[in-house]
Amino acid sequence: MNRSIAFLLLGLALGVSPVLNAADAPVAPVAPVAPAASLPGQSLYHLQVTLTDQHGASVPWASLRGRPQLVSMFYGNCHLMCPLIIESAKAVQKQLPADQRTRLDVDMLTLDPVRDTPAALAEIAQRHRAPDEWRFLRPAEGDVRALANLLDVRYRFRDDGSINHTSVLVLLDAEGRVRARSEVQGVAADPEMVAAISAVLDGR
Length: 204
Fold this sequence. Notes:
204 residues; globular
């Protein structure tokens, strides 16, 4: 009789659970692991970075997935174009019907994380009377360039501490794909951007 079977029968007779060799132990079935929902290839959320909002909370970039986002980059010590970016985003949002307005998130990412601390971002949000649900986000200093490249925002620091940069609003759909861009030239809402946002919110 096979020795492993003999030991098994003896253990059962004595009421003792025998210890089997690894080779004799039954192999438990491996439960299949459900794959995570994959991002589209064009999604900007493939970039794994974490930002900090104006309240000091950590906000993973990929956590913005699931809702359309109106995104821009600015910096706090800018006194001309950056206030226009914020006011232009407010104007675009106001052009949307109330039911759509609540389904669009707005995110302002700073190009200057050294000076734009969470406290500074909170002060900027208050000064510009931004809606409470807007996020003013501070990337880590080493992540600014990667985010700017994703959003196609060109920038460079000048000797006086100012930043020459692209002034643009970028619309991302719920999966993080760029659906529209609008160059900011004033505070008036760009009707093409408003139409693009409506289309994304309506699933078109």
